[in-house]
Amino acid sequence: MLARLHRFHGPNTLTVLYRRGQTVRSQHLTLKYSVRGNAPYRVAVVVSKKVSKSAVVRNRIRRRIFEQVREQASLIPAGADLLFSVFSDQLAAADPAAIQKSVAQVLEKAFSGQQPSR
């Protein structure tokens, strides 16, 4: 799991990101992102009930994406706000390499040419 420092907190914290963020899409998920300065990066993962009615499946997808983001933190610049929206239940049963590829793909599209945080 990501450290508390790298997660969003409180109500309406994603509102600005939804309004002003740029979007990158892959086969199974969408990344909305913006860069706000030199603060630590923050990440949120949204898995709708349209993906799966089961909370167990939705939470499994969420945890798997958080883990891949944690492993690929070197691709994320400082101050980045990231919102991963999942629209496919195939990520619940996918192998970790497929999830890693999907997350890396959207991060590279979003931040190619920017300075990483590490």
- Can you count the beta strands? 4
Q: What would the CATH topology be?
A: Ribosomal Protein S5, domain 2
The count of helical stretches stands at 3
Give the termini distance in whole angstroms. 19 Å
Total discrete domains? 1
Order of helices and strands: HEEEHEH
Q: Architecture in CATH?
A: 2-Layer Sandwich
Q: What's the helical proportion of residues?
A: 25-40%
Strand content: 15-25%
User: How does the overall form come out from the CA principal axes?
Assistant: globular
Mean pLDDT score: 90
Class by SSE composition: alpha+beta
Q: Uncertain spans, ≥5 residues at pLDDT below 50?
A: none
Strand order of the largest sheet: 1-2-4-3
The level-1 CATH class: Alpha Beta
The value of Rg in angstroms is 13 Å
Largest sheet: 4 strands, mixed
Describe the structure.
By secondary structure, the chain is of the alpha+beta class. It has one domain (4-109): Ribosomal Protein S5, domain 2, CATH 3.30.230. Helices cover 33% and strands 20% of the residues. It has helices spanning 15-20, 55-71, 96-111; strands spanning 22-25, 29-35, 42-47, 80-86. Helix 2 crosses helix 3. The longest helix is centred in the middle third of the chain and has 17 residues, at 55-71. The mean pLDDT is 90.
